Structures are given as C-alpha cells and as structure tokens.
C-alpha cells in the first residue's frame, strides 16, 4: 500500500486508505441512528473495510466494486454489535420499470 505512483504530490494508497479510515471513525462517532455517506468508487473499498474493522494492512488485498449511483447498506446488530454489508451496489433505483 506504500507504492509510489510516480506522480509528484500524489498520496500513496496507504495514505488514502488512512484518510478514509479516519473519516469513517468520525462518521461513526456521530450519535445519529442512520447516516448517508456518499463516496467515490475507489474510496468505497476502504469505507467498507473500515466498517467491518478490517485491519488497514489487510485492506490492500480487497476490492469492493460499486457502480455510479450504486447503494450499499451497512448495518450493525443491536446485541453483539456485529457489522455486516447488508447489500452492495444496489442499482434498481437507477432503472425504474417503464
């Protein structure tokens, strides 16, 4: 995750992932019961990884893909506080029946 892409001033994948993990920690610290988070496709991998508490080092080995406008639902149960990806990249709302 520390590979330099050769673009001056560009952050590494690790630095980017760290920013997303920090953002997710900030989002989670809010007391709201439900939240909507809008992100770009590359960031969604790290957002989901942070949600399921995947260690940052392991996040470099996964890739969760999402279409533009795709909806992903994340949830946590009330008893054990297990985290889940309840649905991923739902796009039915983009193609309503005619």
Written account of the structure:
The chain has helices at residues 13-28, 41-51, 56-59, and strands at 71-76, 83-90. By secondary structure, it is an alpha+beta fold. It has one domain (13-94): Phosphoglycerate mutase-like (Rossmann fold, 3-Layer(aba) Sandwich), CATH 3.40.50. A two-stranded antiparallel ribbon has the order 1-2. A hairpin with a 6-residue loop joins β1 and β2 (83-90). The longest helix has 16 residues, at 13-28. The model has no long low-confidence stretch (mean pLDDT 93).
Q: Please tell me the overall pLDDT.
A: 93
User: What kind of sheet is the major sheet?
Assistant: 2 strands, antiparallel
Widest sheet, order of strands: 1-2
Q: How many domains in all? A: 1
The gross shape turns out to be: globular
Any idea of the CATH topology? Rossmann fold
The helicity comes to 25-40%
CATH superfamily: Phosphoglycerate mutase-like
Supply the CATH class: Alpha Beta
In N-to-C order, the SSE pattern is HHHEE
Number of distinct helices = 3
What proportion of the residues form beta strands (DSSP E)? Answer: 5-15%
Got a strand count? 2
Radius of gyration: 15 Å
* Structural class label: alpha+beta
Topology:
Blueprint: H1 13-28, H2 41-51, H3 56-59, E1 71-76, E2 83-90
Antiparallel strand pairs: 1-2
Helix pairs in contact: 1-2
Summed up:
This protein has helices at 13-28, 41-51, 56-59; strands at 71-76, 83-90. It is α+β, with helices and mostly antiparallel strands.
Comma- or semicolon-separated keywords:
98 residues, alpha+beta, Rossmann fold, 3 helices
């Amino acid at each position: 995750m520390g590979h330099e892409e050769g673009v001056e001033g560009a952050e590494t994948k690790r630095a980017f992932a760290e920013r997303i993990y920090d953002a997710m920690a900030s989002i989670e610290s809010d007391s709201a019961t439900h939240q909507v988070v809008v992100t770009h496709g590359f960031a969604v991998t790290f957002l989901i990884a942070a949600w399921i508490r995947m260690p940052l080092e392991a996040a470099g080995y996964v890739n969760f893909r999402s279409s533009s406008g795709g909806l992903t639902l994340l949830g946590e149960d009330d008893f054990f506080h297990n985290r889940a990806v309840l649905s991923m990249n739902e796009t039915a709302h983009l193609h309503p029946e005619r």
